[in-house]
């Protein structure tokens, strides 16, 4: 019985460390600092500008991507079901549009690299010189 408990404990610890760190990325030309509160306001549609007043275009990963689930939980403090309900209400009432969804890290990275207003998030392991990391979670 002890062996089984020890194996379960090790499995739980390993599965927790498998979750990738999230890197919030912007175009290298973007000089804005971004706080967790700024991210929450941007990705919940409460603002559409960076701190300096310039336009911000948030980009989401597609639903079901592990980095999306982690971002939603760690940064927005909401589950995917809560966010779906949140955006459904805003869209229905005409008060908001959710961020554009892109299929994977590579698509987010390419979009951010091509657009100085874009801000997105990817797995930390996908970061390269085409984007600038402004926050990690």
TrEMBL record:
Range of residues in the leader sequence: 1-20
Domain of life: Bacteria
Keywords: Signal
Protein name: Phosphate ABC transporter substrate-binding protein
């Amino acid at each position: 019985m002890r062996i089984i408990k020890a194996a379960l404990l090790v499995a739980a610890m390993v599965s927790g460390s498998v979750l990738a760190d999230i890197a919030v990325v912007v175009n290298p030309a973007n000089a804005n600092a971004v706080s967790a509160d700024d991210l929450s306001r941007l990705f919940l549609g409460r603002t559409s500008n960076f701190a300096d007043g310039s336009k911000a275009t948030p980009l989401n990963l597609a639903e079901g991507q592990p980095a999306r689930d982690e971002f939603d939980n760690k940064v927005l403090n909401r589950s995917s079901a809560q966010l779906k309900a949140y955006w459904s209400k805003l869209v229905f009432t005409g008060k908001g549009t959710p961020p554009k969804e892109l299929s994977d890290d590579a698509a987010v990275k390419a979009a951010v690299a091509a657009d100085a207003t874009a801000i997105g998030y990817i797995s930390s392991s996908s970061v390269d010189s085409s984007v600038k990391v402004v926050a990690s979670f």
